[in-house]
């Protein structure tokens, strides 16, 4: 009974664990760190590459697509475009 209650609580809490990206987010200074951070936040990473000195990542969550640009020196989000 106790295990069932714990599983039920975890199942209900899981959607609430997903975080949203903001301009204040710090995701990491390498492409791998940024991808890991986004995955941990509940995003599916579709593509990641370096573009114009920034880490550019294409993401999807809840059917919404977006692009995140991260400064590799600070790890901070510089641009966020959600569609």
- Give the strand tally: 4
Mean pLDDT value:
85
Overall number of domains: 1
Strand order of the largest sheet: 1-2-3-4
User: Tell me, what's the shape?
Assistant: globular
Give the termini separation: 43 Å
The total of helices stands at 2
Largest sheet: 4 strands, antiparallel
What low-confidence regions span 5 or more consecutive residues with pLDDT below 50?
A: 1-17
Radius of gyration over alpha carbons?
A: 15 Å
Give the helix proportion (percent range).
25-40%
Broad structural category: alpha+beta
Proportion in β-strands? 25-35%
Oligomer: single chain
Helix-strand string: HHEEEE
Signal peptide: 1-18
InterPro entries: PepSY (IPR025711)
Organism: Pseudophaeobacter arcticus
Keywords: Signal
What is the topological layout?
Blueprint: H1 2-17, H2 31-40, E1 44-51, E2 54-61, E3 64-70, E4 77-82
Antiparallel strand pairs: 1-2, 2-3, 3-4
What does this structure look like?
It holds the Pfam family PepSY_2. Residues 5-79 form the PepSY domain. This is PepSY domain-containing protein. With 83 residues, the protein is an alpha+beta fold. It has one domain (20-82). Helix content is 31%, strand content 35%. The protein has a four-stranded antiparallel β-sheet, with helices on one face. The chain is globular and about 30 Å long. Mean pLDDT is 85; it is low at 1-17.
């Amino acid at each position: 009974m106790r295990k069932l209650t714990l599983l039920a609580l975890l199942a209900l809490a899981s959607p609430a664990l997903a975080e949203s990206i903001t301009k204040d987010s710090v995701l990491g200074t390498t492409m791998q760190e940024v991808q890991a951070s986004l995955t941990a936040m509940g995003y599916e990473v579709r593509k990641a590459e370096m573009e114009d000195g920034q880490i550019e990542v294409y993401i999807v969550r809840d059917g919404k697509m977006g692009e995140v640009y991260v400064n590799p020196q600070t790890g901070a989000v510089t641009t966020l475009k959600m569609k």
